[in-house]
């Protein structure tokens, strides 16, 4: 069952790249936290550009593989704050 069409998926991918690229500055992240966000933005941009779908440019990576990679990245994003020790940053933890 397809929930999202390929064009909509591409638009969301490119918007996600923008959010990841400007996110560290908006959130006040520096150092390793910002580097990880910028790196993820670059990887996501490259993944989107090489995917074989309407908004891809190089169109070499099958769309199903693109989706599989995004699932793996989604799981990694859930555990990334602990792996990267984001709790050590003032802006990356909730203050009550």
Overall helicity: 55-70%
Order of helices and strands: HHH
Class inferred from helices and paired strands = mainly alpha
Number of domains: 1
What are its keywords?
96 residues; mainly alpha
Structure description:
With 96 residues, the chain is an all-alpha fold. Helices cover 66% and strands 0% of the residues. Helix 1 (6-27) packs antiparallel against helix 2. It is elongated. The model has no long low-confidence stretch (mean pLDDT 87).
How would you summarize the topology of this molecule?
Elements: H1 6-27, H2 31-50, H3 63-83
Helix pairs in contact: 1-2
Question: What is this structure, in a nutshell?
Answer:
The chain has helices at residues 6-27, 31-50, 63-83. With 96 residues, the chain is mainly α.
């Amino acid at each position: 069952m397809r929930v999202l069409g390929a064009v909509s998926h591409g638009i969301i991918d490119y918007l996600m790249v923008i959010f990841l690229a400007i996110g560290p500055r908006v959130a006040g992240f520096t150092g390793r936290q910002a580097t990880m966000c910028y790196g993820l933005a670059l990887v996501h941009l490259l993944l989107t550009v090489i995917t074989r779908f309407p908004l891809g440019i190089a169109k070499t990576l099958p769309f199903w593989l693109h989706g599989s990679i995004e699932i793996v990245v989604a799981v990694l994003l859930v555990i990334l704050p602990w792996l990267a020790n984001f709790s050590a940053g003032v802006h990356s933890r909730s203050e009550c």
